[in-house]
Amino acid sequence: MTPTRKKRLTVVLLILLGVSVAAAIAMTALQENLLYFLSPSEVAEQQMPTGRQFRLGGLVKEGSVNRATDSLKIRFRVTDGLKEVEIHYDDILPDLFREGQGIIAIGSLDNNRVFQADEVLAKHDEEYMAPEVADALQKAGHPRASKDSTSVAPSEYKP
Amino acid sequence: MNPVMKFLHKTGSPAYFYWLSGRIIPWLWVVFAVLTTWGLYQAFFVAPSDYQQGESYRIIYIHVPAAWLSMMIYLMMAIFGAIGLIWRIRIAEILAISSAPIGAAFALIALITGAVWGKPTWGTYWVWDARLTSQLVLFFLYLGVMGLHSAIDEPRKAARAAAMLALVGVVNLPIIHYSVEWWNTLHQGTTIKIIGESKMPSSMLFPLLLMAVATKFYFGAALLSRARNRLLDQDRRRGWVAKSIREQRL
Question: Are B53 and A96 in contact (CB < 8 Å)?
């Protein structure tokens, strides 16, 4: 390689290095802000103030879903295996919403520490399976595939 | 000179590149057509439906190959750009800028198909989570590279400036890939893994891999076609073009 080309190669490598370092520093600094949602444990730890909007993510607790019969109102609890938060919501839920499903709710805590959600999103997991296989697994008592429970057990759910 | 360098030097000559790419392109189109037909048939008629999402998951057969390709094209654009910067090989400069619109198109396809899938699955078209945002940044980087290139009249200078921007943007690629692991995102984690077990049965995975390979052939054909046009446009007053016309090779 000629000296000129070596010099140009060094410049290219220095650009890549410089940008990587800058990006790494920026991402470390912004770590908190880049989190799309908080888990119930993080909500408890940080003592989230009432009325401030944030996103809360977790699994819908088994047996906690309580629907009103005459309206869209729904109450349920989300958990990350350690802490729980009560959520109240009054709108249309995504198709994937079910007990055990990972969800993200957008809203704020009220004075009773109940999370009043303005929007509920279902978090899809990375597991894909044919329905027959899922049924077979469910019959065999495999926790990963049952339609009513999550494909990720609460203990291994990393919000 | 070793055979590899000899081949590179030969391919770097405009006349030879023009002739060689013209011979390769039809074959790339043929392989693309065969693989896409096979892949789409497998994807829509053979692969089973998903236990949670039903049929709507089938959009991954477009979404995932497009997203992968949009990242791969960016990496190739940066590599071509770097080769152009260091060795000042004009063909590499042309290949770099010719990659940009194709990459931008695939980045946009990934964003749109993802939004269409997100509405029924998540309940929203768009959220500003790390994966979606970094993919949008990738799309804007492509637009930036194209914009910067077209803002400078002199093609060699334009290529160098665009290559610099392309190189800076490379840092976004690992961010896109690891965004779902580094941060909480609405977008799910990685299903298909090179190391370890993929979280998808092979009956679903096979059509996806077919489509992933097919789109690469599309990229090859589209890139070479674009590069030839650009080269011919830049060299329209050069000797080799006139010579090729005389010899009826154009």
Answer: yes
pTM for the predicted model, two decimal places: 0.86
C-alpha B113/C-alpha B76 separation (Å) is 23
Collect the ranges in chain A with pLDDT lower than 50: 145-159
Task: Choose from B171, B175, B178 for mutation: most chain A CBs within 10 A.
Answer: B171
Place of tokens 């990587």: A20
In a domain, B1, yes or no: no
Closest residue in chain A to residue B191, using alpha carbons only: A126
Domain edges within chain A: 3-33, 35-156
User: CATH no. for residue B71?
Assistant: 1.20.120
Give the CATH superfamily of A35-156.
Nucleic acid-binding proteins (2.40.50.140)
Domain encompassing residue B122: 22-190+202-246
Taking an 8 Å cut-off on Cβ atoms, the answer to whether B200 and A19 are in contact is no
Whether complex ipTM tops 0.85: no
Rounded Cα distance, A142 and A136, in Å: 9
